[in-house]
Each structure stands twice: as structure tokens, then as C-alpha cells.
Amino acid sequence: MEDGGRRPPPPPPPTDLAAGQGGGGAAAAVVVVPIPPTNAPTGVESSPSIVRRYPTHPEPPSDDAALSAAGRRSYFNYNATDGSRFGPSTWGGVVAGDEYDYWGRTFLDDDDDDGSSSLENMCQVDGIARSPIDVCTRPEGGCEEFHEIRSRGGDYRIGDDALMTKQILPNKLRVVVSRRPDEVRMRCLAYAAMLANVTAAAAADAIDPDDELLCASEPPGADFANTQQKALDLLNIDIKFPSEHTVCGRKYDGEMQYYYFHPVRRTLLVVAWLLEATIDGSPANGHLQLLIDQFRDVYDANESACRGRDAEASATPGGVSPTSGRLLRVGRRLAMAASPSSTPNEQSDPSATSAPSESSSFPSVTSIPIATSSPSESSVPIPTSTPSESSGPTVDPGPWDPFHPDIQRTIHFWGYAGSLTEVPCTDAALWRIMDVPVRITIDQLDQMRNMLFNNRDPRRDCAYTSTHYEGSVARPINGSLPYYICTRDDYVSDDEREACGSRRGCAEPYGPRLGPYVEPIVHVTGPPSESPTSSTSPSLSPSGSPTVLPTTEFPTTSMIPSGSPTASLSQPIDNGDDDGPI
């Protein structure tokens, strides 16, 4: 993989974007502009320090064109301007579509794929908890957890599209994890616990061939405190730009959300990671790049199919193509000008390509046709640099751990009860927003945004699929909700407790997996929660803004003396049974 930590290319010449914006204009250049500091509530500079403006794709030309085949509205976008026909203020009218069906299958076990899900739309219902929100330094309650999120990497291969389906959807990059029945999940958990408690001599007799076959492969999962469910299987991963949640008014470059479903409470548990791009020469996030490469295979497959359609149309006398051959090259160069493609592996494995298929149970585009508009050649300036082209699908890197150290640098978070941040806005989501961002490079950010905002669907006349508005698929902040925050004063990692033989952890702090400790984005400043952080936390500045700390890493060498005992703790540690706090 090539180093993605270099500085971004210089911006293209100034371009008039007026023709390409407003929800129905032609494609326009990608332009780099500085972002001014956030004015409220903290004055902290927004992230990122630069932003690339992407052309907003045309909306359906009429209200009728926004309907599903069954005559029910299924289209929505992120145009939050006054008078928008399909923006967030109108989402309450959406009652059908692929996303509606997906969550209907999740919450209600609906089997209908025709937009007839019985799941209620709650996007504009008064009195419900609406996400996203802004979290900051003043929680309204104590931490409700008593141990870290205990992750299970699983052994599903990220390149196996039957188990982990990669999709470029209109408003996110998504990985759908193959869902096993809950009775299978519980049976496999019980079988694993039984094997863990038998002696080596009795292990051979304890092995059950049927359970071995049934539980031979398991998805990623996580054990949350107070769920009474042990480890829940990962349902899907969504990546959006920019972040939907904000911290003290600061919006981050992106947000990666892990969804888990509680089968008894019929509730989602969502872990949100804020993505922060760097332009200081830091190395690329290697583990996340493995996932980015998988999405690139989907994007390239779609683009290759559309390129073939364009070539056929150009070769036919009088043929009409949505995008001429030259314009296609220009469009691709515009789409990737800010980000050279990730370096492909030497080998190619066709089975690793996750191109959408007509028979997919999770369609990768909206269920309605989207109007296609092609700019004239003269209106699209050609960037000065052309990125390298991908030479083929990537090699399957094997299992992909959602809590890999490249992703997880903290075990603490803000928590609150909210909703889905998209249609149908179901108010059954328990959010955990991790308090240390995931570091990526500006190159990696551009790769992901380009794939999401410039994807075309070969099954629908190569129409652009994205419903972003001016480079955003983030639902606006919807007021405030009470939230709590879990800090080091509430719990430390299981590894640290075991290593130092204390519920309070070691004298010097550790991060996950005994890695470097990273300071949270902000510290609690008041009013104190039921379990406040230590008095050494920074106080409010004279302006009333919280002190935002750099993500400082503390070295961990020599923190644990050689030969330090790892005796069992004096207090019981929750073993996954969730029978109450320790």
C-alpha cells in the first residue's frame, strides 16, 4: 500500500460552481476551500481544515419521480435549505425504499422488498428522541457502564461478499454482515463457554460435531454492559461524511458507525467513531485502508460497467450516452483528482469483487430512478493531475477486526438514547460516541468521499447514486438530549485490571490492549456527574469554552514492572452475564 500520509494536491484553478449546485445543476469541479472557525459554542476550529466541494447531483424532476413502484415516496436527500422538496425537513413523508425495507427487516423481521414495510416513520414525530446531537463537557448523569465494550473480531473474511457485503449506497458506504439467527448465536456462545470450562483431558469428549459445524465461523461481535445478552453480533458498518455527531460544536471529517441489534429489547446499540483526517505527513491508517480497498472494488466495477456502456453508445451511429467517453474520463479525473487511488495488490482475486447484483438481498442503490444530467464538455475544467487507475480487484486480506488498534484508541465514550439518523428515524438506538477520534489521512478521506459522492449505477443508466448536498450526508443536529460520559474514573480496560491486579488499573494509564493511553477530545468540566472525572481535568477557559486537548499518547514502556503478578481481582469482573455492576 502506498503511503497515504502526504499532503493533498494544490487546489485546481478557481471555478464558478453556481451551475453545479442547488440540487439540479451539472457536475462541477472539486474545489478546495478553507473552513472558518466554528463560532458557537466553543470557538474551536472545525475539522477538517480544508474541505472539497462536490457537485450536488440532480433531484427527481417531479414528486411523482420520487415514488416507488408501489406509488409510495421513497426518495430523500440532504438538502437542508429552505424550500427543499426532499431534504431532512420532509423526511416524515418517506414510507418506502431500500433503506426502509432494511430497517423493517431488522426491527420487525419484515420480508417484503416492495416498499411495504410496516415500520413507522418517526422522522417528524413530536416528542421522540432524535439523533444526532452535540455532546460536550456537561453530562446529565453518571456512566451507565461498568466495563469496556468487549469486542470479538470474528473470522468472517472481509473479501467474502456472502458474509460481508460491501455497498455504496446513496448516503453511506456500508458493510452488511451476514446475520445468523439469534438462537444460533446463543447456542454458539454456550458451546464456546462449555469448551472453555472443561479440562484438556475432557475436551475431546466434549466436542460436538454438530456444534463444531454450526459454529465454525462467527461474525464480529461485542459484549456491552447491562444488556443481559453476552456478545451481540455486528449487524452493519456505515461510514458517512462529515460526522453526524459533534463534540462541543466541532464537526469531524467523517463518522463510522457500528450497529448491533438487541433481539429482546428490539433496540440498536450503535458505536460511533469520529474520523479525523491529517495533513501533517502522518502515516495512513493501514487497517481502515483494507476496508477502503474493498469499497474501491465495488466502485471500480460500477465505473467499468458504465465505461462499457458509454463505449457502446459512442460506437452506435446516433447513439446517446449519459456521459461521453471524454466526459467520463474527465468526470473520473475530477472525482479522484484529490486522491490517488490506493495502490492495488500485485495479485488479483476476482472473487473479492463486491459488485452489486440484481439478486442482492440488500440493494446498493435507491429503489427509484434518479434523474441523470450530463454537463457539457466546456463546462468541466480538467484538473492538472490525473490519478493512477486501479488494475483490478484487491486480494482478500482475511478477517477484518472492527476494534483493531488502528481504529480503537479508547474504551470510553459519550452515551445517550436516541434514534436512527436517517429514514425511518426509529427511536430505538443506544449510542456510544467514542471519545478519541480515528486518525486517517486526507488521501484516505478523499478516497472514501469520492467513491460515495461520485458512484454511478450501471443498472440505472449509469445515474449518479449519491443523495449528498454539497458534500454532506449528515443529518443536521436535532436539538439536545440528555447524555452521560464514561471515563477512566468509571472503569479501566480488562487487560489493565488484570495486569496490575486492581479494579482501578495501573498507576500510569493504559489504552486498549495495554497500548498507549490517548487523552480524550475533552474532559468533563461540570456540572459534576454522579461519577465525575478527577479534579485534575482542565477547567473551562475564561470564555466558557472547554479545553480541547491534543490527542497526546503517553509511552507505556516500563509501566508494568517485570514479573508483575496478574492475580485475580479482589472484586468480581463481569464475565458477560451482565448480572450487575461490580
UniProtKB/TrEMBL annotation:
Q: Where is this region: Disordered?
A: 1-66, 307-326, 336-402, 517-582
Judging by the UniProt lineage, the source's domain of life is Eukaryota
Provide the Alpha-carbonic anhydrase domain boundaries: 409-457
Q: What does the similarity note say?
A: Belongs to the alpha-carbonic anhydrase family.
Asked if the keyword Protease belongs to this entry, the reply reads no
Residue stretches of biased makeup (Polar residues): 40-49, 553-573
* GO MF entries: carbonate dehydratase activity; metal ion binding
Q: Does the keyword Metal-binding apply?
A: yes
| Biased composition annotated in UniProt, kind: Low complexity | 348-395, 524-552
Its UniProt entry gives the catalysed reaction(s) as: hydrogencarbonate + H(+) = CO2 + H2O
Matches recorded under Pfam families: Carb_anhydrase
**Where would you find the membrane-spanning parts of this chain?**
none
Coiled coil ranges (UniProt) are none
EC no.?
4.2.1.1
> Which keywords does UniProt give here?
Lyase, Metal-binding, Zinc
Looking at its record, which EC class is this enzyme?
lyase
Q: Write down the species.
A: Stephanodiscus triporus
- Name assigned to this protein: carbonic anhydrase
